[in-house]
Write a structure and sequence with these properties.
This protein is mostly helical. It is built from 5 helices and no strands.
């Protein structure tokens, strides 16, 4: 029972971050290219705008194998993003919602890891 709950939390966190990461990479590349026309040259020009979202996808690769480490990194990235947006008075509701989803997925990774850890300790 606990193993299936941990797998559920892990799957939700994985696919939520995969969806958010891939969507935001596409949005950051194509949105800037719309100003100049969608060509390969303009997309490559806007590629640096998607670096933070590539960092999220790289963190997802880490979290895929190491749930605790990845969950902690997601928590730090999400809370840091929320703090930055609040401190700069530049926050909009969609941006904050995405950052809270990053925090939630970090919490789900950590929760999944802790459920597995409790199960392993109870078997000893």
């Amino acid at each position: 029972m606990l193993q299936s709950l941990a797998n559920f939390f892990q799957s939700i966190a994985r696919f939520m971050m995969l969806f958010i990461g891939m969507t935001m990479v596409a949005v950051s590349i194509f949105t800037g290219a719309l100003n100049y026309g969608i060509t390969i040259d303009n997309m490559l020009r806007n590629l640096p705008d998607s670096i933070p979202w590539f960092l999220v996808l790289f963190t997802l690769l880490i979290a895929w194998d190491f749930e605790l480490v990845g969950g902690l990194i997601f928590l730090i990235l999400g809370l840091g993003g929320i703090f930055y947006m609040q401190a700069s008075n530049n926050a909009t509701l969609p941006q904050e919602s995405i950052m809270w989803a990053v925090v939630l997925s970090g919490g789900l990774f950590i929760l999944s890891w802790s459920i597995r850890r409790v199960r392993v300790l109870s078997l000893i």
